[in-house]
Structures are given as structure tokens and as C-alpha cells.
Design a protein that fits this description.
The protein is mostly helical. The protein is built from 13 helices and two strands. Strands 1-2 form a two-stranded parallel sheet. Helix 1 packs parallel to helix 8. The longest helix is centred in the last third of the chain and has 44 residues. 39% of the residues are buried.
Length: 316
């Protein structure tokens, strides 16, 4: 298997989370949709192995980089989403009451902004579509960086996403939040007027999970649990920061992500603090992942240099 340092790091994180997930599922006695997870895992593993084929054969190293990163991205998303569920019911008090006070200080009301969007149905519908683009955007960035040969930036992107998700989950374990939709009711006519990605039904399920935990896991039913920091905002920042500076791509990515904060508030059922938290988390993690990537790369170069004399001696 031919992997660069960043790819080995991400694969190691995936393997570690998989083992932790399996152990906690067994200890907690959680039932699992094994067929559903197997199919999803097969898709990720298949993309990853296809990338390995391209790299080993030398047919196209750019395609190889895109496929390997794409496969790792899919596999990490699976194990990380399961890992997040392993800490239900929550063991620590939620901090939503603090974030509600911050909202009030800024004059922000989730119910108010949702009602505003519902009175302008075209706005609510556009924001729903924008909100749904987060994960597809990341896959587009992976493919674009890979196919344009920007390998270093692709690895930085991959490590940033992995560290950001892990950091958000760890923060949420100790300071859980579920957002206003879990506590504030909006009129029923709202969901009949505009599509809502996160509404009262979604919020009620989050409240149930908070107290009862999870008894059955399926990739079809996994919800986004983390309120603060908003990982949708983190992903939007990733897309804008890492996307190649080609005018065609930027003309699509920039307008979508300029609308993302509003989409996160209306469609994601978030506090105002969640948006700023997502941006701050991205700045910190992106800088940290660059340092980690430099360290991993230097270790890889040192290992290659150390093995070169050995290969020369062997050849002689």
C-alpha cells in the first residue's frame, strides 16, 4: 500500500475510531444496521482501493490522489458519525442556556428568523438548498485539488477536516449543545410553507437522544448532533479556503458560502454563537493542521533519507 504521511495519519484515525466504535457498541449493546454500514464502507473502501491501483500502476497520480483522499473522506465520515453517537445520553449538562443569553444580547431569535424565511418562501427554499451543499462541496474540492495536482493542499484539506471533526466532537462531549430547534417551537404552518432541514421534529429527536441514548444505529437515520461550533460553517470555510482559485469554481463556491451562515441559522436550527464558533474553530484547526502536516512530511523525508543508504548498500 502506497500512502503519503497525511494519508497514513488519516487512515490511522479511521482505524482507531473504528475500533473504539466497535468496542463501545459491544459494551452498550447497541443494535446496528450492519448491511447499511457495510454498503457505505464498501463504497469508501472501493474508492480508496481504486486510488491505490492508479498509484501503484502509475497510470495517473492525480486521479490516484483524488480517489484515495475521497475514499478516506467517506470512511472517516462514517466512523466519526458513529463515534459521536457513542456518547449518548449526554453525561454533562448542555450549555444551550448560555448560548440563548448570547443570542438575546445580540437581539437574535431563531424562531424569528425562521418565521421571516417562511414569509418569504423563495428565501427559505434557497437556503434549504444551500444548506444541503456542504458535503457535496467538500467532495468537489477533493476532486478538484486532486485532478489539478495540488497534492499538498489536498492533504492539508484532508487533515484539517479530520482534526476539525474530532475537535468538535470532543468539545461537544464535554459541552453538549443541540441548538434552539430542540427547545423552541415554531408554528406548524412554517414547515408546510418552506422545507426545514432542522425543525421541531428534528429537535425533539435530539432531546430524546439526550436522555435516552441510542438503541439502534443506521446510516439512514444518523442526525447531526453538534450545535456549537457549527460544523456546517467549518465545512463552508474549508471549501472557500481550499478551493483552487479558478474563476469558474470561485464563481460557484463563493456565492453559495456567503449564504451559508444564514442557511445555517435558518435551516440548521443554530444559535448565533454557533456560526462564530465554527469560524474560530476553522482558523485554529487549519493553522494547527498545517503545522502537523509539516511535521509529518519532515518525518517522512527523514525516513526516506535514512532508507536510501540502506538501499544503496543492498544494491552493491
Amino acid at each position: 500500500m502506497r500512502l503519503f504521511a497525511a494519508e497514513r495519519f488519516v487512515l490511522g484515525v479511521v482505524a482507531t475510531l473504528f475500533l473504539v466504535d466497535a468496542a463501545l457498541i459491544a459494551v452498550k449493546g447497541i443494535r446496528v444496521d450492519y448491511v447499511g454500514y457495510f454498503i457505505c464502507s464498501l463504497a469508501g473502501a472501493g474508492v480508496f482501493l481504486l486510488g491505490q491501483f492508479y498509484r501503484k500502476s502509475g497510470r495517473d497520480l492525480r486521479i490516484a490522489a483524488a480517489l484515495i483522499s475521497g475514499g478516506l473522506f467517506i470512511l472517516f465520515t462514517l466512523v466519526a458519525s458513529v463515534f459521536n453517537y457513542m456518547f449518548l445520553p449526554v453525561a454533562f449538562p448542555t450549555i444551550d442556556h448560555v448560548l440563548f443569553r448570547v443570542d438575546a444580547a445580540f437581539g437574535y431569535s431563531w424562531a424569528g428568523i425562521v418565521l421571516w424565511a417562511a414569509t418569504h418562501p423563495w428565501v427559505g427554499t434557497i437556503l434549504f438548498m444551500v444548506y444541503a451543499t456542504s458535503l457535496p462541496q467538500l467532495l468537489v474540492v477533493v476532486i478538484t485539488l486532486g485532478f489539478t495536482g495540488k497534492e499538498r493542499m489536498l492533504h492539508h484539506f484532508l487533515v484539517t477536516g479530520v482534526l476539525g471533526a474530532c475537535a468538535s466532537i470532543v468539545f461537544w462531549i464535554f459541552f453538549p449543545t443541540f441548538g434552539p430547534s430542540a427547545y423552541v417551537q415554531v408554528p406548524q404552518w412554517v414547515s408546510q410553507t418552506i422545507p426545514l432541514a432542522v425543525g421541531n421534529t428534528y429537535g425533539q429527536e435530539l432531546v430524546r437522544l439526550t436522555t435516552e441514548g441510542v438503541v439502534y444505529l443506521s446510516p439512514k437515520d444518523v442526525l447531526g448532533l453538534i450545535g456549537f461550533p457549527s460544523f456546517h460553517i467549518f465545512m463552508a470555510a474549508m471549501s472557500v479556503w481550499f478551493v483552487p482559485r479558478h474563476w469558474v469554481v470561485m464563481a460557484v463556491i463563493l456565492p453559495i458560502n456567503l449564504l451559508m451562515p444564514l442557511a445555517v441559522l435558518v435551516q440548521g436550527g443554530h444559535h448565533l454563537s454557533d456560526v462564530f464558533g465554527g469560524l474560530v474553530a476553522f482558523v485554529i484547526v487549519c493553522a494547527g493542521s498545517a503545522r502537523l502536516l509539516n511535521w509529518l512530511s519532515s518525518r517522512e523525508r527523514a525516513g526516506d533519507a535514512a532508507s536510501s543508504p540502506a538501499r544503496i548498500v543492498a544494491a552493491e
